[in-house]
Amino acid sequence: MTPLSPKLSRDLESGRLTEHLAEIAEEASVLILPYWRADTAVTTKADDSPVTEADQKAEALILERLTALYSGVQTVAEEACAADGAPDAESAFFLIDPLDGTKAFVGEREAFTVNIALAHGARVLAGVISAPAMGQTWRTGGSGDKAGAFTRRFGEPGWRQVRVREKPDRGFALISHSLGEDEAERIAARFGCAEWQALDSSVKFCLIAEGRYDVYPRTGPTCEWDTGAGQAILEAAGGRVITLEGQPLTYAKPQYLNPGFVALGG
Fold first, then answer.
1. Which of 89, 127, 208, 217 could cross-link with 252 by S-S, CB 3.0 to 4.6 Å?
2. How far is residue 79 CA from its own chain's centroid?
3. Which helix (H) or strand (E) segment is 78 a member of?
4. Would you state the pLDDT for residue 178?
5. How far is the C-alpha of 132 from the C-alpha of 257, rounded, in Å?
6. How far is CA 175 from CA 102, 120, 169, in A?
């Protein structure tokens, strides 16, 4: 496998990579917000998922900024893949979901996000998630004393470190809004949680990373751009993301499709 470029490696280790990605994700968030709760036109992609002008414009901005900072690093972006097909992963590549939780966005709910991750082969190395309507960003750090997961409110100069909590006696699960109440309750109980809440998008990974919830099980289909940034953040905060068979969730899979998985806190 081709090693990371010297610049990418330095920025990854120092934490500058995710500082840059956070600035890009927050810029995309500012672009997206005027479309929220504004009767934005919705079209349907080939897989029956919704897409809006906000998705498309945010992705164009992110790709432009990444090309300027890290030219030559491959990008795997949701809307480009929907339009042109998924490219083969070569070496290091950015995974981009410009608006994760489009159904929440269209439904005027707050839990939609901008996701940017860096993967290298089967591993996801770094990630950033911004939640435009919540005004909050999460990111991974660097290595050594700069390692960990961090968050800030939009406009804040500093970052606060976050950490998963040890699972309490009555664990609390986050469940996709796409599940019915009976199925959500059954799945939450399967993973040892007496309580659950339905929530959209990759923000579920971040809330577990902050120690506010414990488990996010997902049995339905997802793609790597849905999970890469969230997995990186949760793992940096001390959590895990594993398949339903108990193996680590890996990357650069065919068509970037994920199996079922569970995200775990402490």
1. 89
2. 15
3. helix 78-84
4. 79
5. 26
6. 16, 29, 19
What mean pLDDT is predicted for residues 41-58?
A: 87
Is this structure's pTM higher than 0.85? yes
The answer to whether the beta carbons of residues 232 and 125 sit under 8 Å apart is yes
On whether the CB atoms of residues 198 and 176 are closer than 8 A, the answer is: yes
Give residue-wise pLDDT tens across range 60-94.
999 999 999 999 999 999 999 999 999 988 789 99
Distances in whole angstroms, Cα of residue 177 to Cα of each of 40, 76, 174, 257 = 21, 26, 9, 20
Q: For residues 197 and 83, what is the distance between their CA atoms, to the nearest angstrom? A: 34
Look up residue 88 and give its two tokens: 């083969």
Of 199, 250, 244, give the one whose Cα is nearest residue 217: 244
H helices, E strands: number in the chain:
8, 16
Q: Give SS3 for 251.
A: coil
| CB-CB contact of 50 with 103 (8 Å) | yes
Please give the pLDDT value at position 182.
86
Q: Which tokens is 21 given? A: 């990605």
Mean pLDDT of all residues in 87-106: 93
On whether the CB atoms of residues 24 and 139 are closer than 8 A, the answer is no
